[in-house]
Amino acid sequence: MNNQIKFHIALNVSEIGATVDFYKGLFNAEPVKLKNDYAKFELDEPGLVISFIQAPDKVSSHFGHLGLRVANETQLAKRKEEVEKKLKIALEETNTNCCYAQQDKFWVNDPDGYEWEVYHFKKDVDKNDKRPQAVACC
């Protein structure tokens, strides 16, 4: 373990196997710990520790969304290419104004409906798009 500070998220999930398969595709990584009701991924880029606890009665995807911000359009295209090999892209947006920022992004949904956006921040803007495809935004 290094001294890097990492963000930690713990999510309740319905079924650990389907969850692990999804996140292996999203993160392009294997879990560092895997039990029959628990999994943990530790990522260096982005600096993230994310745990999944099988607890179907506690699952709720209505808390908002999660995201991975990449540094540039090249990284976004590379990440999209990697993810598309393993997962279904739910939505792709270009030059969308979301969270008062212009972004290019794509969305994937995990087995419990948790929405993930993978995006490239372009610039701050003064409005959010009201288009139907931007519903998942802020």
Automatic annotation (TrEMBL):
Q: Which Gene3D superfamilies match?
A: 2,3-Dihydroxybiphenyl 1,2-Dioxygenase, domain 1 (3.10.180.10)
What InterPro entries has UniProt attached to this entry?
ArsI/CadI-like, Cadmium-induced_rsp, Glyas_Bleomycin-R_OHBP_Dase, Glyas_Fos-R_dOase_dom, VOC_core
Looking up PROSITE patterns in the UniProt record yields:
VOC (PS51819)
Its domain of life reads Bacteria
Domain named VOC is located at: 5-121
The family database entries (PANTHER family) matched by this protein are listed as: CADMIUM-INDUCED PROTEIN CADI (PTHR41294)
Instruction: Indicate what this protein is called per its UniProt record.
Output: ArsI/CadI family heavy metal resistance metalloenzyme
